[in-house]
């Protein structure tokens, strides 16, 4: 795997978040000046900025960067798109995969742009239900396809390692528009395709 250059963070934002996190460590009974924790507030500040960077991005702009006229009118499906998001209720990760399909109406987009849209909305403080709808609406509103289908399957660490502590629980959400909503055959074709290995 190729080494990825570290993201560039706003120094002022990093400093302010780190100061708060240093105090949080104190409130938890830790010594933020001990060797293992000295750089932790800054690391956490950078991590939080990375995990929420999607708030500064525009999914529609991503799609508009690669829109092409094409008379293809069958389903386009990108499945098993890895997603990493942060639950806004506990600031803990949820991890899973998205399956996204659309039926073009004269316009297609680059396949990687679908994955980028998922990434943009996932990298925010989120709930899975909203994330599912935001992905659908972005594609529907920007490409104006005949329909969009989104299914997300995710594991929530706020359920797995705290609270109810159910490690194997998977949450599935779906959102449909256009022909996927109105036509059971089209919706079932999508659902059958995402079940296949």
TrEMBL record:
Residues in the signal sequence: none
Pathway(s) annotated for this protein in UniProt: Cofactor biosynthesis; 7,8-dihydroneopterin triphosphate biosynthesis; 7,8-dihydroneopterin triphosphate from GTP: step 1/1
EC numbers for this chain: 3.5.4.16
Keyword GTP-binding on entry: yes
GO terms under cellular component: cytoplasm
Keyword vocabulary terms for this entry: GTP-binding, Hydrolase, Metal-binding, Nucleotide-binding, One-carbon metabolism, Zinc
Recorded superkingdom: Bacteria
Protein's GO biological process: one-carbon metabolic process; tetrahydrobiopterin biosynthetic process; tetrahydrofolate biosynthetic process
Annotated family: Belongs to the GTP cyclohydrolase I family.
Name of the protein described by the UniProt record: GTP cyclohydrolase 1
